[in-house]
Amino acid sequence: MLADPGFAQRVIGGGAAAFAAHERDVMARTNALAVRGRCLAYDAPWPRFFGTSPWGAWAELERGTGRPYVFRLVRAGSPPARAAALSSVMDSVAPQAPALLYVGDRWLPRHVTLVFASGGERLIYEPARGAVLNPSIDVVVDDRLALAGWNVPWFALVPEAE
Asked: Is 68 left (phi over 0), alpha (psi -120 to 50) or beta?
């Protein structure tokens, strides 16, 4: 919806039922066993309790924005390396080209958040609370993010540099 304001207006104008129906359609696409373009020849199975598959989300981002996306690891390395990786994720987003940040615990990524640009800021939409956050890089790097109870940033799907 960030990439197509007219579409966003139609969904939002339809109220909560239209938004919920749209989200069910997106979930069906992102978690379906399907042939995808650049991501994988076939989607690998992804346990439903893990939420949205990264490759399904990747395809959905490319479909919705019309731009290619790339995978960016955030979890690995020293705190300065993680800060640089996260800064790179934040810098990659543009008004009509958001990123997805997967967060979890120290063992697994478990939750998907949306990184987007608005008014010159880079923000994180937390879907579990319906909240928009502007955390400092230190909070993220120190695993104190607290997004739906998950603190550890794992990886992101970001728009490819033009």
From this structure: beta
Statement: residue 11 has pLDDT above 80: no
| 77 phi-psi bin (left φ>0, alpha ψ -120 to 50, beta other) | left
Q: How far apart are the first and last CA of the chain?
A: 21
Q: What is the DSSP letter of 50?
A: G
Q: Which residue has the tokens 């304001």?
A: 5
Task: Give the pLDDT confidence of 55-89 residue by residue, as tens digits.
Answer: 888 888 888 889 999 999 998 888 888 889 989 99
Under the banding of pLDDT at 50, 70 and 90, the label for residue 46 is low
Tell whether the model's pLDDT for residue 152 goes beyond 80.
yes
HEC per residue, 7-32? HHHHHHHCHHHHHHHHHHHHHHHHCC
DSSP bridge pairs for 126: 131
* Interatomic CA distance for residues 10 and 29, integer angstroms: 20
Phi-psi region of 18 (alpha: psi -120 to 50; beta: other; left: phi over 0): alpha
What percent of the chain clears pLDDT 90, i.e. is strictly above it?
A: 17
Of 7, 5, 161, the residue nearest 93 (C-alpha): 161
Separation between Cα atoms, residue 162 and residue 159, nearest integer Å? 9
